Amino acid sequence: MVPDAEDEPVLPLAVLRERGMTAVQVGTTRVLLVHVDGEARAYDNRCPHRAWPLERGTLADGVLTCANHGWSFDVASGRCLDPGDRDLVAHRCRVDDDGMVRVAP
Q1: For the chain, how long is the longest CA-to-CA vector?
Q2: Would you call 13 helix, strand, or coil by DSSP?
Q3: Separation in Å, CA 10 to CA 69, 97, 99
Q4: pLDDT on residue 1
Q5: Phi, psi dihedral angles at 73 (to 5 degrees)
Q6: Which backbone phi and psi does 55 adopt, to 5 degrees?
Q7: Helix (H, G, I), strand (E, B), or coil: what is residue 95?
Q8: Measured by CB atoms within 10 angstroms of the end CB, which terminus of the chain is less buried, N or C?
Q9: Number of C-alpha atoms within 13 angstroms, CB side, residue 3?
Q10: Residue 93 C-alpha from the chain's centroid
Q11: Nearest partner of 4 among 105, 78, 84, 85, judged by Cα
C-alpha cells in the first residue's frame, strides 16, 4: 500500500502490536494508536466526554475504557458504548509496505 504523502510515519506495527496502544504526536495533534485484529487504528487521544487523555485508560478485549469517568469505546469502530453518542474522532491510519504505521495529521 502506498501511503498519501501527507501521512506521517509514527511507529512500526510490530511495536504497536507489543504495546496494544500508545500515544504519538502527529503534527500538532496527540493521537492514540490502537492495535486491533492485526491492524492499527488512530483516534484523537482525548475522550469525547471530558477530553481526558485516553492513553491513561485501559484496553481489554477490544474495549478502551477512559480512566477519568469510565466511558467505554469499541476500538475497532471508535463507537461509544455508553449513552451519549460521543464516538472517538478517527484519523486516517495505514501500514506501509515496510510495516510502518502512518497517520494523517
Answers
A1: 40
A2: helix
A3: 29, 14, 11
A4: 43
A5: -135, 140
A6: -60, -20
A7: strand
A8: N
A9: 20
A10: 9
A11: 105
- Report yes or no: 53 and 36 within 8 Å, Cβ to Cβ: no
Q: Are 105 and 12 in contact (CB under 8 A)?
A: no
Q: What is the DSSP string of 37-78?
A: TTEEEEEESS-TTT---GGGSEEETTEEE-TTT--EEETTT-
End-to-end CA distance of the chain: 18
**Which single residue is written with the C-alpha cell 482525548?**
46
**Coil, strand or helix at 18:** helix
Q: pTM for the whole thing?
A: 0.91
Nearest by Cα to 20 from 39, 1, 5:
39
